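Sequence, please.
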C-alpha cells in the first residue's frame, strides 16, 4: 500500500473566451496573471495565477470557434462559466498513482479512476509540455460532475516548465507568484456535494488521502516550502444537486475578493 500524500496541483476556473482575453480590472488589481497557452486539442486556452506554494488557478476558456461537437465531448462542456469547476492533484512520481487507483476503485464509492490519457500544450514561447490526465468516472464509465472528486495531472516533462513558481536559482519564489493582495497559498478547498452522495464520496476521499483530520476533512501536500506546504480539503453538503467548490487562500491579511462575477475568494491570515 502506497502512503504517498496527494499534492494539490491546480484549481480550474471556467470563464468565457472574451473574459479570458480581457481580464477584469478587479482581478488584475489583486493578482498577477501570466500567459498559459492552448491545449494540444485546440479546444481550450488558459492563463495562470500561480501561488508561492506551487499551486495555481487555471483560468480556462473554450476556444472561440471550436466545433460544437468537440466542445460537447469535453468534460467541462456543461459547466457554468464564471465559477470554480474542478481541481487536480499530482504526485512526486507517476509510479505512486497505481496504489491510489486500486484503493479508490475498490472502495465501493461509485468512483473509479481511468487509465492515464496523454495531454499537453505549448507555452507561448514554444516550449512543449507533456503530462498524463487521469479522470474520475462513475459506474459503467459514466461521467461524474466535474469537481466532485479530483482528477490527476502527472507530469512527463518537468513540472517546473508547466508551473514556473520558482525563480531561476530554484530557491526563491518567482516574481509572478508575488501578488498585490498578499496571497501565498491554498489553505482550504471545500467541496460541496449533494447530500445523497456524501457517504459514497467520503469513501472515495478516504481512499485517496493518507492524512485525515477527522470527520470529512483530509490533508494534502503542496510543492512550496515548509511554511506554506499543505492544506485541507473538506466535504460538505451542496444546497442543490450541483457540485460547488469554495476556495480559501492564506495571505498577509484577511479579506474577500470577488475576482470575477460569481467567483469570490476568501483570504485568511
Amino acid at each position: 500500500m502506497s502512503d504517498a500524500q496527494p499534492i494539490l496541483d491546480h484549481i480550474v476556473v471556467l470563464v468565457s473566451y472574451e473574459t479570458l482575453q480581457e481580464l477584469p480590472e478587479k482581478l488584475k488589481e489583486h493578482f498577477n496573471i501570466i500567459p498559459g497557452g492552448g491545449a494540444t486539442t485546440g479546444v481550450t486556452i488558459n492563463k495562470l495565477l500561480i501561488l508561492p506554494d506551487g499551486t495555481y488557478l487555471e483560468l480556462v476558456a473554450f476556444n472561440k470557434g471550436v466545433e460544437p461537437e468537440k466542445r460537447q465531448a469535453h468534460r467541462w462542456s456543461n459547466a457554468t462559466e464564471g465559477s470554480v469547476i474542478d481541481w487536480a492533484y499530482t504526485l512526486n512520481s507517476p509510479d505512486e498513482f497505481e496504489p491510489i487507483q486500486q484503493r479508490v476503485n475498490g472502495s465501493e464509492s461509485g468512483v473509479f479512476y481511468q487509465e492515464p490519457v496523454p495531454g499537453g500544450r505549448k507555452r507561448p514561447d514554444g516550449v512543449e509540455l507533456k503530462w498524463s490526465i487521469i479522470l474520475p468516472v462513475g459506474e459503467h464509465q459514466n461521467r461524474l460532475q466535474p469537481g466532485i472528486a479530483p482528477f490527476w495531472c502527472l507530469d512527463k516533462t518537468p513540472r517546473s516548465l508547466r508551473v514556473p513558481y520558482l525563480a531561476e536559482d530554484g530557491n526563491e519564489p518567482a516574481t509572478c507568484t508575488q501578488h498585490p493582495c498578499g496571497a501565498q497559498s491554498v489553505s482550504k478547498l471545500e467541496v460541496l456535494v449533494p447530500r445523497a452522495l456524501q457517504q459514497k464520496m467520503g469513501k472515495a476521499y478516504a481512499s485517496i488521502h493518507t492524512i485525515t483530520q477527522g470527520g470529512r476533512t483530509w490533508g494534502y501536500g503542496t510543492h512550496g516550502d515548509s511554511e506554506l506546504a499543505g492544506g485541507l480539503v473538506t466535504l460538505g453538503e451542496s444546497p442543490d444537486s450541483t457540485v460547488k467548490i469554495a476556495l480559501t487562500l492564506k495571505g498577509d491579511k484577511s479579506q474577500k475578493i470577488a475576482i470575477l462575477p460569481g467567483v469570490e475568494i476568501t483570504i485568511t491570515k
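DSSP finds six helices and 17 strands in the chain.
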